[in-house]
Design goal:
Elements lengths: L18 E6 L3 H12 L4 E4 L8 H4 L20 H6 L9 H14 L6 E2 L4 E7 L4 E6 L4 E9 L21 E4 L14 E5 L3 H10 L5 E6 L6 E2 L7 H19 L19 H14 L2 H5 L9 H18 L3 H7 L13 E2 L2 H4 L5 E5 L7 E2 L3 E4 L2 E4 L2 E4 L8 H4 L2 E3 L6 H4 L18 E3 L10 H21 L9 H16 L32 H13 L14
Parallel strand pairs: 1-2, 1-6, 2-3, 4-17, 6-18, 7-16, 8-9, 8-16, 9-12, 10-11
Antiparallel strand pairs: 4-5, 5-6, 13-14, 14-15
Helix pairs in contact: 1-14, 14-16
The structure holds NADP nicotinamide-adenine-dinucleotide phosphate.
Length: 551
């Protein structure tokens, strides 16, 4: 192996490699990473499967797609140029607006010239003799780089269940996560929708007024929290602009990486009247405010959680007029937070429409898809269009669906076959000079803030390696064991541990055969960020102690 240390000079890759760094994906992660590495003077290149930037926001074009987080913390704060010029129009921006934002980021920061679009990466292999990564595209081209960074996203590998008979269906079939760019005309159609996670919950109220009939095939009902969307007025936007640094600072000191007030009491510790008042206030404020700003123990205490779960069930029963539908829509056998709660924009109200039908598939699932519809037990539902809103092989799917080959031919998906091992979700023993932006075991949190922190940390790590003549940044196996232990400990202490029965993606429980374990860190984004800072300021302890660490 070569111990040559590369000192970057602006925009000229080190001798013997095509690029200093190859990044996969041009969503929030890839764009943020590219910008940070450009600032280090490295010659970096992004490969992106889509024809444009955006990642999640490029692919998920289904009707109703919008953020569940508010604009002011669902964006980057690191670029003054971007934040001074960009104006958000809605409290919860819709997909086209987030996509325009990321295009704007790419243009303002002059990133596009370093991105190859329409280029899917199928393999990345570490060459130990030359201490570089060899990255192969679907077209068969091979590029080399010293650093290899995944920005492939956490909820980006769509999962479509194999339902018996699907190939015989004569109508149209769509997946929310790969919705056609040109849109789909659903007007006057009989539409079947499978899946009522955040994606399904968003699509229902938007297509309900357009379609002839909408049949929602529901296996597990969700706790859908009111969102309360409205326009962003100029004075609100200007206030946010002048406070971006403080907002980010507040977000990184919050367990969910949002700039929220931290409640100081538990739901079980106040009177029933006070509890109701606080819940009602949080419900009106909307979205994650209900989950995070009302009481401090909804994710950790069963009694307090039961009050919140009950409050939401009462809201469902008040909203949905048909008592039979209302009961079916009420989650009863797992707690609030047992799955990631979606934000609703008229979701429950949509079930008051005569053309919206709820088909309960809890007991036996869908039996088969026929040429003309869907069969559930004795009932055959005739449809023209079938939409899958069935989620993702979360956290690991993008990384395990391609061949990432480390030292001694070790393939990442094999390494994780029986359980996850990462160092802080950022690096993996056996995979030198490889970093993941939001790899598995990173916090369960608001993603743009977590991404901003991660790209900052990785660029610091790379600069540290360059400056300290460390040819090989490789995480130690001991650090991985310690982190796996902490991820398990933190997750087990939460209500989220009960998400298994509800097929929660953060436990890998939505993918048949996937090991059931926490795929995210539930111990708090704030705790995680502090730990990352400690590691960085202690010479990236645990991150260059692999077999071939120093030059
Ligand atoms: P999801 O939450 O995993 O929901 C998938 C849905 O498909 C569930 O209702 C699931 O039912 C159903 N399903 C899966 N396989 C099925 C089968 N064989 N038969 C019947 N139903 C089946 O996926 P998602 O809605 O795409 O959301 C995933 C995550 O992406 C969210 O939690 C969120 O983090 C993110 N997301 C965010 C936004 C936003 O912020 N605006 C929007 C969309 C997604 P079971 O529950 O019974 O398994």
């Amino acid at each position: 192996m070569s111990n040559e240390v590369i000192t970057a000079s602006p925009k000229h890759a080190a001798a013997g490699v095509d690029y200093d760094a190859i990044i996969v994906g041009a969503g929030f992660s890839g764009l943020g990473m590219l910008h940070h590495l450009n600032q280090l003077g490295l010659r970096s290149h992004v490969f992106e499967a889509g024809t444009g930037v955006g990642g999640t926001w490029y692919w998920n074009r289904y009707p109703g797609a919008r953020t569940d987080s508010e604009f002011y913390y669902y964006s980057f704060s690191f670029s003054r140029e971007v934040r001074d010029a960009w104006k958000w129009s809605e409290r919860y921006p819709a997909q086209p607006e987030v996509l325009r934002y990321l295009e704007f980021v790419a243009e303002k920061l002059e990133l596009k010239q370093d991105i190859s679009f329409n280029t899917k990466i199928t393999r990345a292999e570490y060459d130990e003799d030359r201490n570089l990564w060899r990255v192969t595209t679907a077209q068969g081209e091979v590029f080399t780089a010293r650093w290899f960074v995944s920005g492939m996203g956490v909820l980006s590998a769509p999962s479509t269940p194999k339902i018996k008979g699907i190939e015989s269906f004569r109508g149209q079939v769509y997946q929310t996560a790969t919705w056609p760019k040109q849109g789909v005309d659903l007007s006057g159609k009989r539409v079947g929708l499978i899946g009522v996670g955040a994606s399904g919950v968003q699509i229902v109220p938007v297509i309900a007024p357009v379609v002839k009939d909408l049949f929602v095939f529901q296996r597990t009902p969700n706790y859908v929290v009111a969102s309360s969307n409205y326009k962003v007025e100029d004075d609100w936007m200007s206030k946010i602009r002048t406070n971006y640094d403080d907002i980010h600072k507040q977000a990184v000191s919050h367990g969910f990486a949002v700039p929220f007030k931290k409640p100081t009491v538990g739901a079980k510790d106040v009177s029933p009247e006070e509890r109701e008042r606080v819940f009602e206030e949080g419900w009106k404020e909307g979205g994650f405010h209900f989950m995070l700003e009302t009481f401090n123990d909804l994710a950790t205490n069963e009694e307090s959680n039961a009050y919140a779960s009950d409050f939401i069930r009462r809201k469902i029963r008040e909203t949905v007029k048909d008592p039979l539908k209302a009961e079916l829509l009420c989650p009863k056998d797992y707690p609030f937070n047992g799955k990631r709660p979606p934000g609703g924009h008229g979701y429950y109200e949509a079930f008051n429409r005569e053309n919206v039908h709820l088909v309960d598939i809890r007991a036996n699932g869908i039996d088969e898809v026929t040429e003309t519809g869907v069969r559930v037990g004795e009932r055959h539902v005739e449809i023209d269009v079938l939409i899958f809103a069935t989620g993702f092989d979360a956290m690991t799917g993008t990384l395990t669906r391609i061949d990432i080959v480390g030292r001694d031919g070790l393939v990442l998906r094999d390494k994780w076959k029986d359980g996850l091992r990462t160092n802080m979700g950022l690096a993996v023993n056996g995979f030198p000079n490889f970093f993941m932006i939001l790899g598995p075991q990173t916090p369960y949190a608001n993603l743009p803030v977590a991404i901003q922190e991660a790209v900052g940390w990785v660029s610091r790590a790379i600069r540290y390696a360059e400056e300290n003549r460390i040819a090989c940044m490789e995480s130690s196996a001991e650090a991985e064991e310690a982190w796996a232990h902490e991820v398990h400990r933190a997750g087990s202490a939460t209500i989220m541990a009960q998400g298994g029965s509800a097929h929660a993606w953060f436990l890998g429980a939505n993918i048949p055969g996937k090991p059931r374990e926490f795929n995210v860190y539930m111990g708090g984004a704030d705790v995680y960020f502090r730990r990352c800072e400690e590691i960085a300021s202690n010479g990236f302890r645990g991150f260059h102690e692999g077999a071939l660490a120093t030059a």
